[in-house]
Specification:
single chain; 57% strand; 9 strands; mainly beta
């Protein structure tokens, strides 16, 4: 979390490696936030968590198929939060990661 990269609103084509990705997302009170993560589960199961600066878990998306998402989040107060994108239980030792598209929308 301390090495999180700032991630603005928009569509980002990324690649998660075995150590995962951390992103800092900053929002204002009252914002409605949607985050979608598009990928092929056959290339590696990606899961996603959202955390407060304290590390407290706010939300988790951990399905066993393609794509993950968090939608309709109404931000209760101004500030930054942290998104952790990671490979879940990488069963293939030759699997070094999985490409994904992170769609970050704020209304």
């Amino acid at each position: 979390q301390s090495a999180a990269s700032p991630l603005p609103e928009g569509t980002h084509n990324l690649h998660v490696c075995t150590d995962g990705d951390w992103f800092e997302v900053c929002w204002s009170e009252g914002d409605e936030v949607s985050m979608r993560f598009q990928f092929s589960h056959a290339d590696g199961d990606i899961d996603v968590t959202l955390h407060q600066p304290s590390g407290e878990l706010i939300y988790e998306s951990d399905s066993g198929d393609d794509n993950e998402g968090m939608g309709g989040i109404i931000v209760p107060f101004d500030g930054c939060r942290y998104v952790h994108v990671y490979l879940y239980d990488n069963e293939d030792p030759g699997q070094l990661g999985n490409p994904y598209t992170f769609i970050h929308e704020v209304n």
